[in-house]
């Protein structure tokens, strides 16, 4: 069966998903297809009253189902059935994501859905394997560290990988015994709605997953400020993360996990495998048109190999050709919106005015849709806008160094610390510099996450608080209490 589809033939979910069913409302936010610019329809905007309804449903579902206290293997089985359904419904899920996002339908089906289903199974396995601890105390006492679910988690996910990001939030929260009220991006809501529908079909109690549609200022604010939300988990920009912290601080302290922006360096030393490095440098910025938080947008290269590597990248960038996300063969992705494309182009222009030289790209593709050419900018200093700002597009800067100290100085960013890549055959150097780089993840002679879900992800500095993935994500969805018993 072909994955390609006609956008006009696809039936789209309608309304919020609360208490196990769709709840319609007036259309207030237009949804567009970035591959064509066509308006697909409108979705409602959840106000504080509807968010309260969703939170109340989540709380009632927890109490009614006893989800947080049932035998852990029951949670494991339900979550495993949900993962199986995701794979069985991969074609529908992939089309619902591709129609309004930057993700090619074939990549969603072959990668995003498979990885997300595996992540759900991974977190489900924690349910009956992570346990409380007995701790050493005096002979006349028994000390325990006990953990419990938080209750209702408020989650907000971005538009760049809708299914994957929903899995990051829903998997560990449900495995740990919580309910979730999730707000997907108002630009890419459809696949997340269908995930919630599949959860009910898999036997996860109705109301444990509630999806509220809307924007950040209205719906997102109402969600994080709601007194019935016990913890907040957010993936998105550093600016939006700061606003969430401010909203929470104003209305009542609660824990949060924030996976925020990045401006990640990829540092290539003269002894590196240049074939491998060139491939990774391309793969670090061009997938999804550079619209991912760990994008390696700052390329930093030893001077003696800089010209050769720049030529290789210029050639590989030029080979990428765009395609609508609903076509059978995946092509270079569109930018999510015309507004975002204009922002990218504006930063590129500002970079040139500040001394940068565009080696390739620097303009949109000449076709319908919001497509921007892969762009490489050389001769930029540390204050150049393209170096400083998170562009969230297919734009990389190219800087050179003469010494290890200079490389580390260039790799450091005053605000961000999400990821970094190092390319060298010198293992001693790699391990030494890994200790020095201020980032939550460092990749050596590769760039990008693997399918090893045990590795947590999260940033340093303004790139975030807490961790997604790994056992850290499971534990972040449970709170501990210390118990001391005198015999």
Shape: globular
Uncertain regions spanning at least 5 consecutive residues: none
- Fraction in beta strands: 15-25%
> What fold name stands as the CATH topology of the largest domain?
Aldehyde Dehydrogenase, Chain A, domain 1
Q: Under the CATH scheme, which architecture of the largest domain would be assigned?
A: 3-Layer(aba) Sandwich
State the separation between the terminal residues, measured CA to CA. 67 Å
Q: Helical region count?
A: 15
Number of domains: 2
CATH class designation of the largest domain: Alpha Beta
Main-sheet strand order equals 14-15-16-13-12-18-19
At the fourth level of CATH, the homologous superfamily of the largest domain is Aldehyde Dehydrogenase, Chain A, domain 1
Largest sheet: 7 strands, mixed
Q: Tally the beta strands.
A: 22
Notes on the structure:
The protein has 2 domains: 251 residues, Aldehyde Dehydrogenase, Chain A, domain 1, CATH 3.40.605.10; 195 residues, Aldehyde Dehydrogenase, Chain A, domain 2 (3-Layer(aba) Sandwich). The protein has a 7-stranded mixed beta sheet, with helices on both faces. It has a 6-stranded mixed beta sheet with strand order 9-8-7-10-11-21, with helices on both faces. The longest helix is centred in the first third of the chain and has 20 residues. With 487 residues, it is α/β, with parallel strands linked by helices.
């Amino acid at each position: 069966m072909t994955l390609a589809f006609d956008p006009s033939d696809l039936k789209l979910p309608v309304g919020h998903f609360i208490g196990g069913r769709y709840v319609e409302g007036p259309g207030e936010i237009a949804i567009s297809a970035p591959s064509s610019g066509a308006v697909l329809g409108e979705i409602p905007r959840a106000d504080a009253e509807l968010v309260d309804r969703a939170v109340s449903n989540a709380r009632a579902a927890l109490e009614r189902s006893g989800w947080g206290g049932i035998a852990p293997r029951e949670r494991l089985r339900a979550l495993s059935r949900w993962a199986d359904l995701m794979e069985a419904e991969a074609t529908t899920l992939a089309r619902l994501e591709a129609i309004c996002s930057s993700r090619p339908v074939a990549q969603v089906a072959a990668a995003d859905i498979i990885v997300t289903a595996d992540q759900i199974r991974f977190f489900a396995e924690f349910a009956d394997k992570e346990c409380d601890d007995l701790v050493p105390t005096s002979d006349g006492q028994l000390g325990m560290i006990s953990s419990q679910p938080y209750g209702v988690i408020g989650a907000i996910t971005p538009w760049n990988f809708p299914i994957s990001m929903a899995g990051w939030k829903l998997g560990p929260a449900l495995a740990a015994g919580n309910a979730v009220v999730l707000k997907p991006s108002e630009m890419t809501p459809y696949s997340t709605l269908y995930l919630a529908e599949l959860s009910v079909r898999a036997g996860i109690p109705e109301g444990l997953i509630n999806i509220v549609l809307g924007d950040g200022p209205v719906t997102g604010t109402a969600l994080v400020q709601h007194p019935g939300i016990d913890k907040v988990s957010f993936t998105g920009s550093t600016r939006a993360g700061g606003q969430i912290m401010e909203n929470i601080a104003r209305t009542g302290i609660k824990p949060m996990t924030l996976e925020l922006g990045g401006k990640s360096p990829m540092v290539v030393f003269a002894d590196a495998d240049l074939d491998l490095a060139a491939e990774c440098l391309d793969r670090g910025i061009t997938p999804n048109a550079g619209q991912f938080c760990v994008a390696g947008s700052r390329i930093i290269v030893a001077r003696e190999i800089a010209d050769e590597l720049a030529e290789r990248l210029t050639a590989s960038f030029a080979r990428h050709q765009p395609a609508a996300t609903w076509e059978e063969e995946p092509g270079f992705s569109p930018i999510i919106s015309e507004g975002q494309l204009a922002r990218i182009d504006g930063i590129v222009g500002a970079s040139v005015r500040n001394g940068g030289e565009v080696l390739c790209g620097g303009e949109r593709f000449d076709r319908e849709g919001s497509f921007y050419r892969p762009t490489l900018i050389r001769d930029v200093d540390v204050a150049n806008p393209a170096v400083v700002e998170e562009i969230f597009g297919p734009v990389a800067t190219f800087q050179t160094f003469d010494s290890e100290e200079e490389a580390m100085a260039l790799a450091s960013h005053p605000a961000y610390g999400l990821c970094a890549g190092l390319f060298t055959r010198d293992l001693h150097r790699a391990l030494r510099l890994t200790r020095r780089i201020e980032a939550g993840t460092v990749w050596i002679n590769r760039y990008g996450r693997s399918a090893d879900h045990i590795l947590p992800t999260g940033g340093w500095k303004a790139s975030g608080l807490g961790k997604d993935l790994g056992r850290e994500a499971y534990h972040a969805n449970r709170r501990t209490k210390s118990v001391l018993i005198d015999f």
